[in-house]
């Protein structure tokens, strides 16, 4: 259980530790902090599966939990005369063996005071433990089932790389560029993140299996997957024969600017243009040009 990022993050992670039931053995908090520092973990919540797997090996656990918490004052109505406090938390439950994000949970609580909103969120986190536990136990069960029912790997799908393109493969041609939606959860938490997916682009022009290789949470992973499923393309070809390829798809998510922020950016740009158009300042002692 890693101390969460944000104000009150250690309190939130402590509350989650207290909620853990007997089927889970928790690593000592001080040892976890020492291992976290030793692994060079800086608090990022936008990890690739390789990065998460490496971090999990440093911790020496089956699952680890990361999180972000944020408390903010929000205004009500156009006049903004009324206000309330909202405390948010995003919880990442990660399988250490694979680096896979098995569950992302977004929790929030509102109240008239910041203290009350934090207390309500702590209570909600404790109450949600059975759901978190079920996700981890289900992942453990699935991992065991995969080992017990091992099947030979399916035929290898060629991976789209620069080297493959050099062999005369004509890459898939996509008919349009689609931009995934930036989610409300990500907006509330002010998230900037990158989601990377490995997707299979079949020879019949349909999208096959999609696997997240860099996750972000806050609904952004699901938004990216939904967008990839909508892609329409002309299949890859080699010597006139259509191919099924696996390729990496990357989406960068950034919180859209509000109307006021956009106007401020426009004004900054105008000021910059005016500065560029100004004549150069005369150097002291130099005669003005005729």
Text of the CATH class of the largest domain: Alpha Beta
Calculate Rg over CA atoms.
Answer: 25 Å
Mean pLDDT: 87
Strand content: 25-35%
Order of helices and strands: HHHEEEHHEHEEHEEHEEEEH
The largest pleated sheet is described as: 4 strands, mixed
What would you call the structural class? alpha+beta
CATH topology category name of the largest domain: Rossmann fold
Shape label: globular
Order of strands across the main sheet: 4-12-7-8
CATH architecture of the largest domain: 3-Layer(aba) Sandwich
How far apart are the termini?
74 Å
Count of the separate structural domains: 2
| Strand count | 12
Helix content: 25-40%
Q: Count of helical segments? A: 9
- Low-confidence regions: none
Furnish the topology, listing elements before pairings.
Elements: H1 9-19, H2 29-38, H3 49-59, E1 63-76, E2 82-95, E3 100-111, H4 114-127, H5 129-148, E4 158-159, H6 162-165, E5 169-170, E6 173-174, H7 184-189, E7 193-201, E8 207-214, H8 220-229, E9 233-234, E10 236-238, E11 241-243, E12 245-253, H9 259-277
Parallel strand pairs: 4-12
Antiparallel strand pairs: 1-2, 2-3, 5-10, 6-9, 7-8, 7-12, 10-11
Helix pairs in contact: 1-4
Pick out its properties:
single chain; 290 residues; alpha+beta; Rossmann fold; 2 domains; globular
What does it look like?
With 290 residues, the chain is of the alpha+beta class. The protein folds into 2 domains: 9-148, Rossmann fold (3-Layer(aba) Sandwich); 158-253, TonB (TolA/TonB C-terminal domain), CATH 3.30.2420. Helices cover 36% and strands 28% of the residues. The protein is built from 9 helices and 12 strands. The chain has helices at residues 9-19, 29-38, 49-59, 114-127, 129-148, 162-165, 184-189, 220-229, 259-277; strands at 63-76, 82-95, 100-111, 158-159, 169-170, 173-174, 193-201, 207-214, 233-234, 236-238, 241-243, 245-253. Strands 4-12-7-8 form a 4-stranded mixed β-sheet, with helices on one face. A hairpin with a 4-residue loop joins strand 2 and strand 3. Helix 1 (9-19) runs parallel beside helix 4. It is globular and about 65 Å long. It starts with 8 loop residues before the first helix and ends in a 13-residue tail after the last helix. 22% of the residues are buried. The mean pLDDT is 87.
């Amino acid at each position: 259980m890693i101390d969460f990022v944000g104000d009150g993050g250690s309190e939130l992670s402590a509350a989650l530790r207290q909620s853990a039931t007997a089927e889970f053995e928790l690593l000592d908090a001080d040892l976890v902090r020492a291992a976290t520092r030793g692994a060079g973990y800086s608090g990022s919540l936008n990890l690739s599966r390789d990065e998460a797997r490496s971090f999990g090996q440093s911790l020496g656990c089956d699952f680890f939990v990361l999180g972000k918490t944020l408390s903010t004052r929000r205004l009500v109505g156009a006049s903004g005369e009324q206000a309330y406090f909202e405390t948010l938390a995003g919880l990442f439950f990660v399988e250490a063996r694979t680096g896979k994000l098995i569950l992302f949970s977004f929790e929030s609580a509102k109240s008239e005071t910041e203290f009350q909103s934090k207390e309500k969120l702590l209570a909600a986190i404790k109450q949600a433990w059975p759901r978190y536990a079920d996700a981890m136990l289900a992942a453990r069960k699935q991992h065991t089932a995969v080992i017990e029912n091992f099947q030979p790997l399916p035929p290898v799908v060629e991976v789209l790389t620069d080297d493959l393109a050099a062999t005369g493969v004509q890459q898939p041609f996509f008919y349009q560029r689609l931009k995934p939606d930036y989610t409300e959860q990500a907006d509330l938490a002010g998230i900037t993140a990158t989601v990377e997916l490995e997707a299979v682009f079949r020879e019949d022009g349909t999208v096959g299996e999609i696997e997240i290789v860099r996750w972000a949470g806050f609904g952004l992973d699901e938004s990216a997957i939904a967008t990839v499923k909508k892609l329409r393309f002309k299949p890859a070809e080699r010597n006139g024969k259509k191919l099924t390829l696996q390729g990496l798809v990357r989406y960068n998510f950034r919180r859209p600017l509000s109307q006021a922020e956009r106007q401020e950016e426009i004004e900054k740009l105008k000021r910059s243009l005016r500065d560029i158009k100004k004549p150069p300042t005369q150097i002291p002692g130099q005669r003005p040009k005729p």
